[in-house]
Write a structure and sequence with these properties.
- InterPro entries: BlaI_family, WH-like_DNA-bd_sf, WH_DNA-bd_sf.
- Keywords: DNA-binding, Transcription, Transcription regulation.
- By secondary structure, the chain is mainly α.
- The protein has 6 helices and 2 strands, in the order αααββααα.
- Helix 2 crosses helix 3.
Length: 118
Amino acid sequence: MGALEAEVLELLQSAAPEALTPGHVLERLGSTLAYSTVVTVLTRMHDKGLLSRVKQGRAFAYSPIADRHGLTARRMRQVLDADPDRRAVLARFVGDLTLGDEEILRGLLGSWVPPRQD
């Protein structure tokens, strides 16, 4: 994700649950960007699955599909899904964790309850 996308995402997350049109995004960015640039960035972020959008008058209004942590977890999952050897990737990942992160992961796994399959 580029710097402008990160800035736009942060802006949209701070506005949540309100969805923002490109005009509102441009206004809140307070920059000298062209309106068409903001539309392009929002459209690309929507195409990447980072944003949802709804029609609001003649424009779309955009909002993030998840908070920052949810989007990071989504990217981690996409990287994991891209490798055919999940076990090897997870083993490397766990092997590279700091002791603090390992403790966090152990705690999360120890308290994790799988979703019910009805």
